[in-house]
Design goal:
The complex is a heterodimer of chains A (about 270) and B (about 250). Chain A starts with a strand and ends with a helix. Chain A is mainly α and about 270 residues long. Helices cover about 70% and strands about 0% of the residues of chain A. Chain B has helices at about 25-30, 65-75, 105-115, 120-135, 150-160, 180-195, 210-215, 230-245; strands at about 5-20, 40-50, 55-60, 80-85, 90-95, 170-175, 200-205, 215-220, 225-230. In chain B, strand 6, helix 6 and strand 7 form a beta-alpha-beta unit. In chain B, helix 3 (about 105-115) packs across helix 4 (about 120-135), helix 3 runs parallel beside helix 5 and helix 4 packs across helix 5. The longest helix of chain B is centred in the last third of the chain and has 16 residues, at about 180-195. Chain B is globular and about 55 Å long. The model of chain B has no long low-confidence stretch (mean pLDDT about 90). The chains are: A mainly alpha (about 270), B alpha/beta (about 250). At the A-B interface, strand 1, helix 1 and helix 4 of A face strand 1, helix 2, strand 4 and helix 3 of B. Strand 1 (about 5) of chain A pairs parallel with strand 4 of chain B.
Chain lengths: ~270, ~250
């Protein structure tokens, strides 16, 4: 087996990865907002504007808010989670191809690049969560003990998002039109996912498919915890069994395995491919 | 007993160069059975050599002889296709005119990112920052975006970072090509210091005068193979003879 042995770089140095993540994400953050006069305000303004448009169209015009007491909160949760998922994967997609000059000049654990991309959007996400919390408070929803599940669910979403990012970033190094494909797929997924409409709008068979997606499961679990509903549509309810909670977790595990496999396969060649 | 820094044994590396790149879906879908002619570019063909600890080792050869590929393999940027390489000690690589800079970031942020990537802690970066900037002579420009830097300025900054990280082996690819006379002299002074600390330097250059003056041994590559390894004056003399007779 050919290879390079380097006594100095054996083993994964977590402190090193932590430092690199810190400087790279601070740099990314500066890059993103360097030449904009509103700067960071954009990251809040974007999902809010999105929310306003979708609420006007679907809430008012298509009257989705009639059946719901807390449709605004319900909708904003969906938009904030979706924005995080889409922004992270879109940024992650470019993390190898866009850092080609770095890959060609230095040997370092390549995984830090998609991870750093996710750090930038994670910060924006945190700010969006504060905005969401304010709206929830205005909407008259009061915290309950069950809200403690939310961080755990957000962690699941983060892991899933990172797995998808790594898969896309690695494929992108080999096939440049993954960028176009994902742009289109993002649009389709947005409408295929119960973000603006309730899960009940989907036909039965589509509900089964939707809930195999960890994103939908996390979204619906968070909504079920925060927004009181007569019957919250969660994975257990849709499949009619508590054991069905394993379905989205299985998808998550498979995606992690694919991400690991594809990344490990291509990692040594990223400098050549990009 | 001699202590080796680098041991390379029968290393091969080739790159696939498709005659028509087929890396979009459209091309694959429209021509699924279209056979893409792939040319194998054999950059290195069974290269074996060792570099001793503390040695100043030069590599010369015409363009396309495999010098830069070899340096990137040593740096761990590429992996060998066949063969083994052992590198003992931390590396500071200076390839493709420097560390991986981001053009849109300020020079200050670039130093931080590169310092961290090269293994410095936050404290070390802050402590060494002034030295790095002073050596590069870029005090007034550190808040500028890197894209506004001249190539000479970028090289100065990159070299300055490279020599201030923790390393036992310094890999240098054409650092002198872009810098001016004054900077070249400063470079050689630092190389003297690095050498006196018992560190290993691998130096790729077309500057044969510098190589003859500085190196302990020089290796000549031609089309991915080692022609010879020996004392600088002899190797360079024969190298010059072949290039002139060919030209």
């Amino acid at each position: 087996m050919p290879g390079t042995r380097n006594a100095a770089s054996e083993g994964v140095d977590l402190a090193y990865i932590g430092r690199v993540l810190r400087v790279v994400s601070v740099a990314d953050f500066k890059l993103k907002y360097a030449d904009s006069s509103l700067g960071y305000a954009w990251s809040v303004a974007k999902p809010l504007a999105y929310f306003a448009v979708l609420y006007a169209v679907f809430g008012r015009f298509f009257r989705l808010n009639l059946g719901f007491k807390h449709y605004p909160a319900y909708l904003l949760i969906g938009i904030v989670l979706w924005t995080f998922f889409l922004d992270t994967t879109n940024l992650g997609l470019w993390s190898f191809v866009g850092n080609s000059s770095l890959l060609k000049k230095l040997a370092f654990p390549r995984i830090v690049l998609p991870m750093a991309a996710s750090m930038t959007t994670l910060l924006t996400f945190a700010v969006n969560l504060i905005v969401l919390a304010i709206l929830i408070a205005i909407d008259g929803l009061r915290p309950a003990l069950s809200w403690l599940f939310v961080p755990l669910l957000l962690l699941e979403l983060y892991v899933f998002t990172l797995a998808i990012s790594v898969i896309l970033a690695t494929l992108h190094a080999r096939m440049r039109d993954i960028g176009q494909v994902w742009e289109l797929a993002g649009q389709l997924l947005f409408y295929a996912t119960p973000i603006i409409y309730p899960v009940g709008f989907l036909p039965r068979w589509a509900q089964y498919i939707a809930f195999a997606n960890p994103f939908v499961q996390v979204l619906q679990d968070i909504r079920a915890v925060i927004v009181p509903q007569r019957e919250a549509m969660t994975v257990a309810v849709v499949y009619g069994s508590e054991a069905a909670r394993a379905v989205p977790l299985a998808t998550l595990t498979i995606m992690l395995m694919i991400a690991w496999w594809i990344f490990k396969r291509d990692e040594p060649y990223l400098a050549e491919l990009t | 007993m001699t202590v080796f820094s680098i041991d390379v044994s029968d290393v091969w590396k080739s790159f696939k160069l498709p005659h028509q790149r087929q890396d979009t879906f459209k091309e694959r879908f429209l021509h699924p059975f279209h056979h893409v002619e792939v040319e194998q570019l054999h950059a290195l063909k069974g290269v074996s050599f060792s570099i001793e600890q503390g040695e100043f080792f030069g590599i010369i050869g015409p363009n396309g002889s495999g010098k830069s590929t070899l340096l990137k393999l040593l740096a761990g940027i590429y992996v060998p296709e066949r063969g083994d390489m052992t590198v003992i000690g931390r590396l500071s690589p200076f390839v493709e005119l420097g560390v991986g800079f981001n053009e849109e970031l300020s020079a200050r942020d670039n130093v931080r990112v590169n310092g961290a990537l090269l293994g410095l802690t936050m404290r070390q970066i802050e402590e060494r920052y002034d030295e790095i900037v002073a050596f590069a002579g870029l005090e007034r420009f550190m808040d500028q975006k890197l894209k506004n830097f001249s190539s000479g300025m970028k090289v100065r900054l990159a070299y300055s970072v490279s020599i201030r990280v923790e390393f036992e082996i310094l890999l240098l690819d054409e650092v002198l090509a872009v810098g001016d006379q004054e900077f070249q002299e400063k470079c050689f002074e630092t190389l003297e210091t690095i050498r006196s600390q018992g560190k290993t330097i691998v130096f790729v250059s077309h500057d044969v005068d510098a190589m003859e003056k500085q190196c302990d041994r020089v290796m000549r590559l031609y089309r991915g193979e080692i022609v010879e390894i020996g004392p600088p004056d002899e190797v360079i003399e024969r190298y010059m003879a072949t290039t002139h007779s060919m030209g």
